[in-house]
Amino acid sequence: PRPIFLNSAKRRRRQALALALVILSSLSTVAVLFFGIGERGVLGDAQKLDSPNGKIHRVRDDGTAPTNNPFADQPGAVASIWALGIRNPQGLAINPTTGDVYDVEHGPRGGDEVNLVLPGRNYGWPVITYGREYSGFKIGDGITAKAGMEQPAHYWVPSIACSGMTFHASRAVAFALCAPSICAMLPQAMSCLLSA
User: Fold this and answer.
1) Cβ(92)–Cβ(101) below 8 Å
2) Closest C-alpha among 154, 81, 83 to residue 123
3) Burial, 80: exposed, middle or buried (Cβ in 10 Å; 0-12, 13-18, 19+)?
4) pTM exceeds 0.85
5) Per the omega criterion (within 30 degrees of 0), is the bond before 119 cis?
6) d(CA 181, CA 173)
7) Phi-psi map region of 161: left, alpha, beta (phi>0 left; psi -120 to 50 alpha)
8) pLDDT at position 194, please?
9) Which DSSP string do the residues of 19-85 spell out, in sequence order?
10) Which residues lie closer than 8 Å to 188 by C-beta, 6 or more apart?
11) Residue 152 carries which DSSP code?
12) Tens digit of pLDDT per residue, the chain (196 long)?
C-alpha cells in the first residue's frame, strides 16, 4: 500500500485519521473507494479545496484519484475530493438499487444529518447547520440555508449520535438504518434486519 495523503508534521497531530467507513462501489466499471475525513475541529477546512479534511473522497482501489472527480483538474485542490462541507462523517453507504452514495454525520449540538452525496456538491459545514455550539451559541451566522449549499436528506435536533449506515431491502421494507437509537424507535425494522 502507498499513502494517499501526506501531511506536514505540524498538521499530523490534528488530523489523526478520523475516517468514516470506507465503501467499495462495485456498481461502476472501475472499482472506486469512497471515504470521509472529518474537519478535525478546524471548521474552515471543510470549505477549503486544498485540505482533505471535512470532505468525502473517491479514489481508485490503488489509491489514485479518478480523473473525472469534480475537482481533479482544479489547481491546488485535493484531487480525491468528491464533496465538501462535511463536519464529522460517521458512515457511508451505497444504495444497492440506485448506486447513490449517502453519508451520515455528527452535527455539533443538534444537526446530525444524512446526505445524498453528489459529486462536487457543498454540504455547507460550517456555513450552514441545524446545530449549535455545545455552549449553546450559534455557529457562524446561525443560518440553515444558503445558495450553492445542499440541504441534508434528513437531520435531527436534538442529535441522535449516528454511528454508521447501511441499506437493507426486502419485499416488506426498504430503509437506511442510521443509529442504534433508531432501532429503539423502529423495532420492526430491527427485527427485519436480524432475520435477513
Assistant:
1) yes
2) 83
3) buried
4) no
5) no
6) 19
7) left
8) 31
9) BPPPEEE-SSSS-EEEEEE--TT-GGGGG-TT--TTEEEEEETTSPPPTTSTTTTSTTS-TTEEEE-
10) 173
11) P
12) 445 555 444 444 443 333 444 455 555 556 788 999 999 889 899 999 999 999 999 998 888 999 999 999 999 999 999 999 999 999 888 888 888 899 999 999 999 999 999 999 999 999 999 999 999 999 999 999 999 999 999 999 998 888 878 877 665 544 444 444 444 444 333 333 332 2
The string of DSSP letters for 81-135 reads EEEE--S-EEEEEE-TTT--EEEEE--SBS-EEEEEE-TT-B--TTTB-S-B-TT
Per the CB < 8 A criterion, the answer to whether 94 and 156 are in contact is no
Location of C-alpha cell 470506507: 22
C-alpha cell at 75: 489547481
Sign of CA dihedral 102, 24, 30, 76: positive
Residue indicated by cell numbers 455545545: 134
Closest CA to 55 of 115, 3, 132, 96: 115
